[in-house]
Write the structure tokens for this entry.
Amino acid sequence: MDLNLLRVLDALLQENSVTRAAERLGTSPAAVSRTLARLRRAVGDPLLVRAGQGMVPTPRALELREEVSALLRGCDNVLRPGAGFDPVHLRRTFTVQATDLLLAGVAGPLTDRIRAEAPHVDVVFLPEALEGGPALRQGSVDVELGVLAHLDPEIRTQHLTHMTLVGIARSGHPLFDRRIDARRLAMADHIGISRHGKRLGPIDSALAELGLRRRIAVVVPSHTSAMMLARDTDLIALTLADWLPETTAALGLRTFPIPVDLRPVDIGMAWHPRNSADPGHRWFRDHVAAAVLAPSGSKDDTSRGSTAS
């Protein structure tokens, strides 16, 4: 049966009047009268009959009243985006791809948020091994988090925040004996961080503009290994400003401003459009964004900016 017939039937059974049902539906009494005739033929019952100046429902109409109303509410819930969604009933596993540095700050707050609202939801974190590939398109990754590049053209993105790069070294490093300028920065031995063994980055271009060049003595594949190496040597590395300050202090490390002009790092979130309207996925993305803006050990949970579509 045409769903519009049910909507007219519902209005008629609620109003017991063709005129009032037409007003409720925003149509004409004549159109409602024609539909009532179709309904009578389909149901095999007059549904509404004259009683003086008004109309009264038949016993069959009274039987149908609540059933039709409930059926329409169910249809509306199916067709309304996200209607009836309650994370407490969600049973699902979400997969997030992120660098180890972002993961270290985001995993705790995200897990706390998820467990508080959706005890049956699990989260799998993956390294950047699938970065630049079709993982989002293929569905093996739900959300990619970090510096977004080389995405498939249909992928949806959301900017989350800008982060400043700073230097990091052990607290007793001779570099801290006096002011750190570009020349002293270039004279120090550096740790490069690259999964592909790349040695040069934006800081090298900035130093080159000043006629300077740094030595990358070691290249490691992760930020975690770089921090451990910086803790035990006189090598220095780069990290994100105000990110994991408690961990940095506990490792005996200290950060310092980079004395060259470096652009902030844009941190964003990416997902495939097939998940855009999914209420569970949208709920999860909201929590990922909130966890980035309030990471573990953050001194200021509100200083990193706001989300933008």
